[in-house]
Design brief:
The complex is a heterodimer.
Chain A (H helix, E strand, L loop, with lengths): L3 E3 L15 E5 L31 H10 L2 H15 L6 H34 L2 E6 L2 E6 L8 E5 L7 E7 L5 E6 H4 L1 E8 L14 E5 L5 H4 L5 E2 L4 E3 L3 E8 L5 H5 L9 H33 L13 H5 L2 H16 L5 H14 L1 H5 L13 E2 L13 E4 L1 H5 E12 L2 E4 L26 H13 L4 E2 L3 E2 L3 H12 L3 E6 L2 E5 L5 E13 L4 E8 L4 E7 L1 H4 L8 H13 L2 E11 L1 H16 L4 H12 L4 E12 L3 H10 L3 E5 L4 H10 L8 E5 L1 H4 L6 H18 L13 E6 H9 L9 H10 L3 E5 L3 H12 L7 E5 L5 H6 L2 E5 L6 H5 L2 E3 L4 H39 L12 H11 L1 H10 L5 H6 L3 H4 L8 H25 L14 H23 L5 H23 L13 H6 L2 H25 L4 H11 L13 H13 L1
Parallel strand pairs in A: 14-26, 14-30, 26-29, 27-28, 28-29, 30-31, 31-32
Antiparallel strand pairs in A: 1-9, 2-9, 3-4, 3-5, 5-12, 6-10, 6-12, 7-8, 7-11, 13-32, 15-16, 15-25, 17-18, 19-20, 20-21, 21-22, 22-23, 23-24, 24-25
Helix pairs in contact in A: 1-3, 2-3, 2-9, 3-29, 7-9, 7-28, 10-28, 10-30, 13-14, 16-20, 17-18, 19-28, 22-24, 28-30, 28-33, 28-34, 30-35, 33-34, 33-37, 34-35, 34-37
Chain B lengths: L1 H9 L20 H28 L2 E5 L10 H5 L5 E9 L3 E2 L2 E8 L6 H5 L3 H4 L3 H5 L22 H4 L5 E8 L2 E5 L1 E2 L6 H7 L8 H4 L29 H7 L7 E8 L8 E2 L2 E9 L9 E8 L8 H27 L7
Antiparallel strand pairs in B: 1-11, 2-10, 3-9, 4-8, 4-11, 5-6, 5-10, 7-8
The chains are: A alpha+beta, B alpha+beta.
Chain lengths: 1097, 340
């Protein structure tokens, strides 16, 4: 935002001059006298509406929303067909489950909406103080209008977006914390608008500002704007004018939902559904055709005992055919059950609790566990093929420690024990400047630069958004320069002689990832104007005098290969004229209403030139706990790990070595700006050559994938600049699509390192891999705002609850406290979730196929008359009660392999890769099993019924007995089939499996034991009890269950050698065992590596 | 203190349930369990199968087709005429004793009692004795709910209307004299049907309940006069009616007609000798290529004769045994790693 502020006399923007893209606000609704016509502008009120429904529109709107789902709509159609057409089953059979599902969903959504209403009300009815005509008036928050002047007290949250006019603090500042917006709990300083310190009540002014826009982070900068949701701290009270209200506040604009991610399992379900829909339609078609073929035979259409009604005789033949078709559809529609959706949803919802409950994910430092933002992707965690990880804060701790610095090419390393007078100690420097010290003046200049060039606040220690800065300030403190704090634009430093130095802070040229540097402009007591700049070497070196660069560069490179984060520090004297020019340029750019970012950038770039390089710093960023083990486990699981970082190549490379993503024998293929530079060649040609060379090495010469033994490991390194060349060059060179080549190389490397990445490039890479052949499942993990784009882009986005705020966590699908938790999340939870849901889906289709197949077969024996085989109660209850609980329990508790085993043997993860359990092969297996069972159930009983006198009193069984026997076998078989598949029997499984069977028996007795007054026909009256009184029925039930399960038992017994135990042994014997876990301290390897590079330099 | 409390609030519960560490039984189907298990099950099944087969074989069955669709067969004249109560008779000879108790079934084939429209064509309320359904039968009975003069039909619907109405008497000829074999019609329908599911309206005499209604079109007598000999066997609780109303599952079926009364000469069953069945032929089946037959059968503990069960048990039992042998060989030859 920010604002063009015009006080009483200078009304520059009137009504006629209003531009699109900006809004004019009259402070306190007092019109500007210079402007004759006062048009009260219309803005929305300050009501926050996050709720979707009101009491009145809930029912229609919610129903509409629900029936927009294709599945619900399908069931609604089936239900309507049943109501309208004369169908074999009553509408209750499909109406009841549908009603149940719709009601449960409606209640859930209604409850959620009620909670939102409550929260909205709390916010909207909050009492705020409004200054109106010199009086303080208490108002409800929702009644705030744009232009109202509000008073906010300490620890209150701002009710809308405010421009700060007056603060109770003398220096016209106030402190706020945006913890509820982005989780950053540090205090941010905001300033009053200049010249408004006077009486706010009589202030007559207009504000010209941008139209509301959601970019939270672009606008947090403007130091006059206080955001709704932020909290006032350390300031008694402030006055501010409302500029954005209600749904136009930044907070509200940011609460728009994320795009929905869908898991592969869901896609598989839809594919299977399509198959089953085809089966359903073809079954109905076959039956309809057969019915009319059968009826065409003389005497069959209308035998004397079954005369048609007059109405039936008169209906059109084709209409009859159509209604028959619909009837068959209804009869067989149970093959696609409503309950599957419910069960899948429940499984996902309940299952996700196990992640947030897991105490292994609890981190005692931040006192938080894992967070599940979506439960739709649980199973996707078991399918990950590519992991894209951020480096800083993810692989490393983002816990910076100042290690050493270099001033004018002299190395300074801090040593506690043998400190010299100043706490300085010079260690072995590079060869040319051994045992030399830089001049004292330079040292102090350097340390002052460290003390001044930052945005750190002093408050019970140092607080800053970037841990690097804290490390630097602390580093300077060790060397005797202590930053005391910033008070009303004055920075105080306690120097080595314990004198307080004062500097007036003129400007802060903020850090941004594109510029990769930040600067401050300060004025010393003596009146000198200085610019201090620190930033990445690549962004500093071109902007300083070149003769200073070489001696520093060596240090920087050595530090980088040691895995330290390096920053270069430079300064520049500004003459009074220069400063005036800069000052006006910055002010102008800051007030610009359009393209402010670009204009600011231009001024920054213009100022930060011709500087003097003073030195460089090295800060260590420790590896995360167990980072190496985690990466190794992921690689063992067949997951390819790509590191995407904005950091320098050398630093990133050494981190990769430390994490064992690159190993000693890994051959590194580099595609960076450095390797592209070769004499006498265009960079494009060189790129072409390199790409082809690497492609040949990794793709063409690589042994076929199956013989993975002893193949060379490749690591690939690419940087941002080269990447954009690769991605943008396809139009230029039409012989080879670089993008394809690049992708193929990447995919054949064990690990890939992309350094110097802009946030958007990270997302680009993820997108490229995501859309490549085979559409692999990608996972992005990161902790900072710069990772959000890739977190949103990947199939699964994981946020680390790190130090760089909560933005990544807010946008992620799952958030974990530490990187090490990723291992259990994927290899443990992910694997289990996938197996569970895959089994759930396959089982559901299977059990409904063998449920409906006998009903289909029965049509051949009843003249295709749509006679249901099972009673309506059974049809309805089968999926809801008799067979739903065991599979739900299975899909929540099954551990076919224990979690410990899964974590120990990362290779087990490969078994389920590529959606292994939901491909067409397993689907075919389950379908055939369903068909086999259906055939056994139906024809087994059919043979038995060749003589329906099955009781020892000679009495005969009828059609409902037939159906009940088939149904009993069915329920027992599908439940026992699940019992066979269950490898992990907790008491819940026992309870639910045996309980379901017992419930079926109990229900059948009960249902058949009473004459139900609401039923038109007492079809099942005593059928079940009579069935049980027949020995033959018992015998046929037992033998058919056993026959159905026999292949399954055989399969289980014979499959065993290929089980996890054997696999584990295989792996250990062939690959020499999995490397034993080592400590996560900096490994030896890294030392040797850095030594090596030392000799090179 | 506050800090500790907040920690305990945030920390996930360390229970077996939340940590997915519930004690669990992990069944392993190893060869040591499966092979003996298969052998045991196989042997048990073979045993049951043999018993079933022996039992089934011991059941005597006598089937006599009387459709009369071929010329020269006893009932061919009846099958072609449309005269009501056409009489014909079948003779058969028993060379050995037909072990009692002997059941007398009639069988129909290509008769679709499981037709959906047919099956729905009845009114259970009416059959439960609900008088209001007498005056206004359910529309599901259509076209047999009202006759041409708009009088309600009781019992309504296709099933009742098409009730089997052939009657049989069995006589035995001993030394030239023919004596009737007593047929017992009690308890041929399900006990619950007779006692609970079907009820006559509690009006005495029963005839009055049917005032204003007409008998089903195909019936010769109204429901309350179905059995002149036994007043308690009339109305909706007539045993033959109940048997007919329990729809057969498949198009070829048999229904129980009578039992041979085990008294006098017939205590042990039907003795060897010459028998004659006198048939009152009413029921037309040739229009839909159906067939009618009479079946005499005795039953065992497993019901009527049915070889399927015995064979199924034998096959699956031997399959189990064979499988266990195969598994034994496989296990012996390639010792699986985890069995060492």
């Amino acid at each position: 935002l920010s604002s063009l502020f015009t006080t009483t006399d200078r009304c520059s923007f009137g009504g006629e001059d209003r531009r699109v893209g900006s809004r004019t606000i009259y402070v306190g609704h007092r019109p500007c006298p210079a402007n004759e016509v006062f048009i009260p502008p219309k803005f929305c009120d300050n009501r926050i509406v996050s709720s979707k429904y009101t009491v009145w529109n809930f029912l229609p709107k919610n129903l509409f929303e629900q029936f927009r789902r294709i599945a619900n709509f399908y069931f609604l159609i089936i239900f309507l067909v049943q109501v309208i057409v004369d169908t074999p089953t009553s509408p209750v059979t499909s109406g009841l489950p549908l009603f149940f599902v719709i009601t449960v969903t409606a209640i859930k959504q209604g409850y959620e909406d009620w909670l939102r209403h409550k929260a909205d009300n709390e916010v909207n009815k909050y009492r705020v103080t409004v200054l109106e005509d010199g009086r303080r008036i208490q108002k409800e928050s929702e009644k705030i209008k744009v232009g109202d002047v509000l008073e906010v007290e300490e620890d209150e949250t701002f009710p809308c977006d405010l421009i700060l006019l007056q603060s109770s603090r003398d220096d016209g500042t106030c402190f706020v914390t945006t913890a509820s917006l982005d989780g950053e709990s540090n205090h941010k300083t905001h300033y009053t608008v200049p010249d408004t310190e006077r009486d706010v009540e009589s202030l007559n002014a207009t504000i010209e500002c941008e139209q509301p826009q959601p970019d939270l982070y672009k606008s947090l900068g403007p130091e006059n704007l206080l955001l709704k949701g932020a909290t006032l701290k350390n300031t008694q009270s402030i006055c501010g004018v409302a500029v954005y209200t209600g749904m136009e506040t930044k907070m509200a604009l940011n609460y728009q939902g994320k795009s929905q991610k869908r898991s592969v399992v869901e896609k598989s379900i839809n594919a299977f559904l399509l198959v089953y829909l085809c089966i359903l339609v073809s079954k109905a078609l076959v039956c309809t055709t057969l019915k009319y073929v059968w009826q065409s035979k003389p005497g069959q259409d209308e035998p004397w005992y079954n005369e048609k009604t007059l109405k039936e005789k008169e209906t059109n033949l084709y209409l009859n055919m159509f209604t028959d078709f619909l009837s068959f559809m209804v009869l067989f529609n149970f093959i696609i059950p409503v309950s599957m959706y419910v069960t899948v949803e429940m499984q996902k919802f309940l299952g996700s609790f196990f992640i947030s409950w897991d105490k292994d994910f609890f981190d005692s430092e931040i006192e938080e566990g894992a967070l599940v933002n979506t439960s739709d992707l649980n199973e996707e965690l078991g399918q990950v093929e590519y992991v894209f990880t951020d480096k800083t804060g993810t692989l490393t701790q983002n816990n910076m420690e100042f290690i050493e610095c270099c001033i004018d090419g002299h190395q300074y390393k801090y040593r506690d024990a043998s400190s010299e007078v100043d706490g300085f100690c010079v260690t072995d420097g590079p060869m040319n400047t051994v045992q030399q010290k830089a001049g004292r003046e330079r040292e102090e200049l350097f340390l002052r630069a460290l003390c001044l060039c930052h945005t750190v606040q002093v408050k019970e220690g140092f607080i800053a958004s970037s841990p690097d800065e804290i490390a630097l300030v602390q580093g300077a403190m060790r060397y005797g320069f202590t930053f005391l704090g910033l008070e009303s634009k004055t920075m105080k430093i306690l120097n080595r002689t314990n004198d307080v130095e004062m500097y007036e802070l003129l400007h802060v040229l903020n850090f941004d990832p594109v510029r990769r540097r930040m600067s401050v402009i300060v004025r010393s007591i003596s009146g000198e104007t200085l610019l201090f700049c620190k930033g990445a070497d690549s962004s500093i070196f071109p902007r300083v005098k070149q003769e200073e660069v070489e001696k520093i560069r060596m240090h920087v490179e050595r530090n980088a290969t040691d895995g330290y984060r390096t920053l270069c520090v430079a300064y520049k004297h500004l003459t009074a004229e220069e400063y005036d020019q800069v000052d006006s340029g910055l002010r102008e750019a800051r007030l610009a209403l359009q393209d402010r970012e670009e204009k600011l950038m231009a001024v920054y770039n213009q100022v930060e030139t011709g500087m003097n390089l003073i030195g460089a710093t090295a800060v260590e960023d420790r590896l995360q706990e167990e980072a190496a083990e985690t990466m190794e486990a992921l690689q063992g699981a067949g997951i390819k790990v790509w590191v995407l970082t904005g950091d320098k190549m050398e630093t990133a490379k050494s981190t990769c070595y430390a994490c064992r993503l690159f190993k000693r024998n890994t051959e590194l293929l580099e595609l960076t700006v450095r390797t592209l530079e070769s004499p006498g060649k265009r960079r494009e040609d060189r790129l072409h050559d390199l790409l082809l060379e690497y492609h040949k090495k990794t793709v063409q010469d690589a042994p076929p994938a199956k013989t993975c033994v002893a193949s060379q490991d490749y690591g690939f390194i690419v940087d941002g600049a080269t990447l954009s060349m690769v991605l943008n060059s396809s139009s230029e060179n039409n012989l080879h699509d670089y993008k394809d080549l690049f992708l193929q190389i990447c995919q054949n490397c064990t690990s890939v390192l992309c350094c110097r990445m802009a946030p958007l490039q990270k997302a680009q890479i993820v997108k490229m891999v995501k859309n490549s052949k085979g559409s692999p499942i990608t996972l992005s993990i990161g902790d900072g705002a710069n990772d959000v784009s890739m977190i949103l882009e990947a199939h699964v986005g994981i946020g680390i609850k790190g130090k760089e705020g909560r933005q990544a966590v807010r946008n992620s699908d799952y958030a974990i406290p530490k990187l090490k938790h990723l291992k259990k999340l994927l290899l443990g939870h992910g694997h289990l979730y996938y197996v569970r849901i895959a089994h759930l889906v396959q089982y559901f289709f299977y059990k409904n196929l063998c449920f409906i197949l006998p009903q289909f077969l029965y049509q051949f024996f009843c003249g295709c008359s749509q006679q249901p085989l099972y009673d309506a109660a059974y049809l309805t209850m089968y999926n809801i009660c008799f067979t739903s609980m065991p599979i739900l329990a299975y899909s929540l508790f099954e551990q076919h392999i224990s979690i410990e085993m899964l974590l120990e043997n990362a290779t087990l993860y490969r078994q389920i890769g590529k959606n292994a359990m939901l491909r067409w092969g397993p689907f075919l297996y389950w379908t055939l099993l369903g068909v086999f069972h259906g055939l056994v159930f139906f024809f087994g009983v059919w043979f038995l019924f060749s003589n329906p006198a099955l009781q020892d009193n000679g009495q005969a069984f009828g059609n409902w007995s037939y159906g009940t026997i088939v149904f009993t076998i069915l329920v027992f078989t599908v439940t026992l089939k699940l019992a066979l598949d269950t490898r992990h029997w907790t008491w819940i499984n026992h309870f639910v499996i045996w309980g379901s069977l017992a419930f079926y028996v109990f229900f059948s007795f009960f249902w058949g034991g009473v004459i139900w007054p609401f039923l038109r026909q007492q079809r099942l009256y005593f059928v079940f009890a009579n069935m049980l009184s027949s020995v033959s029925a018992w015998l046929v039930i037992i033998v058919l269950i056993l026959l159905s399960l026999l292949p399954e038992i055989l399969y289980v017994v014979l499959r065993k050698p290929r089980g996890p135990y054997a696999r584990q042994k295989l792996v250990q014997s062939s690959a020499g065992g999995i490397q034993s876990p080592r400590s996560s301290a900096r490994p030896l390897l890294m030392r040797t590596f850095s030594d090596e590079s030392n000799t090179v330099s | 203190m506050v800090k500790q409390e907040s920690e305990s609030a945030n920390r996930p519960d360390n229970t077996a349930f939340t940590q997915q560490r519930l004690p669990a039984w992990q069944p392993i189907l190893s060869a040591g369990i499966v092979i003996p298990g298969f052998v045991l099950i196989g042997l048990a099944f073979i045993g049951i199968g043999v018993a079933l087969l022996v039992t089934s074989r011991s059941i005597q069955v006598l089937e006599l087709d009387y459709t009369g669709d071929s010329n020269g067969s006893p009932c061919s004249s009846c099958s072609q005429s449309v005269i009501a109560n056409c009489k014909c008779s079948l003779n058969f000879t028993l060379t050995t004793l037909f072990q009692g108790p002997v059941f007398f079934y009639y069988g129909l084939s290509n008769y679709f009692q499981n037709y959906r429209r047919y099956g729905a064509s009845k009114d259970d309320n009416q059959l439960y004795g609900d008088l209001s359904s007498f005056t206004s039968p359910s529309s599901s009975c259509s076209p047999y709910n009202y006759d041409s003069s708009k009088k309600p039909i009781v019992p309504c619907g296709s099933i009742a209307n098409s009730m089997f109405n052939d009657t049989f008497t069995l006589t035995r000829t001993v030394n030239g004299t023919t004596n009737n074999v007593t047929l017992d019609g009690k308890g041929i329908a399900w006990w619950t049907d007779y006692n609970i599911k079907y009820r006559n309206p509690s009006v005495t005499p029963l005839k009055n309940a049917f005032n204003g209604t007409v008998k089903p079109i195909n019936w010769a007598k109204p429901a309350y006069e179905l059995d002149a000999s036994d007043p308690s066997n009339n109305g909706f609780v007539n045993q033959d009616f109940l048997v007919w109303m329990r729809r057969a599952a498949l198009p070829n079926f048999r229904k129980l007609y009578r039992r041979i009364d085990a008294s006098g000469d017939y205590q042990k069953g039907l003795p060897a000798g010459n028998y004659t069945i006198d048939i009152t032929y009413n029921y037309p089946v040739r229009a839909f290529n159906g067939a009618k037959k009479i079946v005499f059968s005795n039953v065992s503990w497993m019901g009527g004769s049915n070889e399927f069960l015995g064979i199924a048990y034998l096959v699956i039992g031997s399959l189990c045994v064979v499988m266990s042998v195969v598994m034994l060989i496989v296990y012996a030859k390639f010792k699986f790693p985890d069995e060492e």
